[in-house]
Amino acid sequence: MATAFDIVTFDVPSPDASARFWCEALGLAVVEREDGGRWLCLADSDGQRRIGLQRGAARPGGVHLDLRCAPHEFDEEVARLQRLGATLVGPARHEAYGSIANLLDPDGYAFDLCSYP
């Protein structure tokens, strides 16, 4: 299977403020900052990605999984997940940092498929 678990992402109104909290609480460091600070990734001292912070409305259940696949597998993985019952929320985005597809599982829970060069 080409898709693998990547990171747990919190949807938060202020990624920088949340990053300060989680970095201090867990001894993590910001290792990625994308989309003008809309997306931050926190990693441990070994460089292992642990928490993603994405600007969005804070709400109960405002946590989603990020899955990853190789860039050359992205389109087929989106299609495969849809065949399994996932719903694509909008068109996949192809940004400088990679490709992102926002999806819902069959029960309506959000998750993203990400592919980084």
Structural summary, described in words:
- By secondary structure, the protein is an alpha+beta fold.
- The chain contains two helices and nine strands; from the N terminus they run E-H-E-E-E-E-H-E-E-E-E.
- Strands 1, 2, 3, 4, 5, 6, 7, 8 and 9 form a nine-stranded mixed beta sheet that branches.
- The longest helix is centred in the N-terminal third of the chain and has 12 residues, at 15-26.
- The chain is globular and about 40 Å long.
- The two termini are 19 Å apart.
- The relative contact order is 0.21.
- The model has no long low-confidence stretch (mean pLDDT 89).
Low-confidence stretches: none
Based on CA atoms alone, the radius of gyration comes out at 14 Å
- Summarize the main sheet: 9 strands, mixed
Helix run count:
2
The assigned structural class equals: alpha+beta
Strand tally: 9
**Average of the residue pLDDT scores:** 89
Strand portion, in percent? 35-45%
* Residues in helix, %: 10-25%
Q: Oligomerization state of this entry?
A: single chain
Q: Which shape, going by the Cα principal axes?
A: globular
Series of secondary-structure elements, N-terminal to C-terminal? EHEEEEHEEEE
Give the N-terminus to C-terminus distance in angstroms: 19 Å
Task: Give a quick precis of the structure.
By secondary structure, this protein is of the alpha+beta class. It has helices spanning 15-26, 74-83; strands at residues 4-12, 29-34, 39-43, 49-55, 63-68, 87-88, 93-95, 98-104, 110-115. The longest helix has 12 residues, at 15-26.
